[in-house]
Design a protein that fits this description.
four-stranded antiparallel sheet; single chain; globular; 2 domains; 11 strands
């Protein structure tokens, strides 16, 4: 049997409860379906790469999970139970955090101030407890990125990889279990991209599930356990990265053609 004739291999998550499951999700804007009956899931310690051209629906699907958009149809399950997510605060209550490409950091303050932005610790006198916030920041950064040392510097002076570390630390410090990363390496060089890859590896070891949105197919194959491809708002198919080639995934993205090593979705091109 050749690589192109491969069939999907055994599912290591069979019988397990997904961290999150999106079933039959649809949303339309002005009568145009941006997401059309899409279903996908994510398991603890897993990275799922979400791929597709601009306008394919991947960002819209993820914005429904993050609470930025309210879906028209479908169900979201967290830990096997139906979840009510109609705004970002509700998503955070379920342990869902989003790290956007812009990172949304306050450039003029340090890592600790960013970690506790809007959730600052106070002393008994009602003043900012800078020492406690720095101590907790050092603790979480020590686990996530032991090489991070620039705790006193404004984050605008940090490298792209270090800024990613701060954004990820802020998410996981407040008990994120489901992390959405939007183009995490888009503006990074090779060394910083490798650093983000190491961060993702640490998150996986902690059982955090990650949806990774990226245009870089090489990045996805380096970081993701599975890929889910969307086209015209629908799921073309999903596959473990070990079961498909990069060329086959490109065929899914461009043509909507689902290879033998993938599980076809409703958006797959009919034979």
């Amino acid at each position: 049997m050749t690589m192109n004739e491969a069939t999907p291999s055994a599912d290591p998550n069979a019988g397990k409860t997904p961290l999150v499951e999106m079933r039959d999700i649809s949303i339309a804007f002005g009568g145009i379906k941006a997401v059309d009956h899409a279903s996908t899931d994510l398991y603890p310690g897993e990275v799922v790469g979400l791929l597709g051209h601009n306008g394919a629906g991947k960002s819209t699907l993820i914005k429904i999970l993050s609470g930025a958009y309210a879906r028209d149809h479908g169900t979201i399950m967290v830990d096997g139970k139906e979840a009510t997510i109609t705004n970002p605060r509700q998503a955070k209550d379920y342990g869902i955090e989003t790290i956007y490409q812009t990172l949304a950091l306050a450039d003029n303050v340090d890592a600790a101030a960013n970690l506790y932005l809007g959730r600052e610790l106070l002393t008994r006198w009602g003043t900012l407890d800078d020492a406690a916030m720095e101590a907790e920041t050092r603790k979480v950064m020590g686990r996530l990125n032991p090489n991070f040392k620039r705790f006193k510097d404004p984050v605008k002076q940090l490298s792209g990889g270090q800024r990613q570390s701060v954004a990820i630390a802020r998410a996981i410090h407040f008990n994120a279990r489901i992390l959405i990363m939007d183009e995490p390496t888009a503006a990074l060089g090779p060394a910083e991209t490798e650093q983000v890859g190491q961060l993702i590896h640490e998150l996986k070891k902690d059982g955090i599930g990650i949806f990774l949105i990226s245009h870089d197919i090489h990045d996805v194959f380096d970081l993701a356990d599975r890929v889910v491809v969307m086209k015209n708002g629908a799921i073309v198919g999903s596959a473990k990265t070990t079961d498909v080639t990069k060329d086959e995934v490109l065929g899914m993205i461009i043509l909507g053609k689902c290879p033998a090593g993938a599980i076809p979705g409703p958006g797959a091109l009919a034979d």
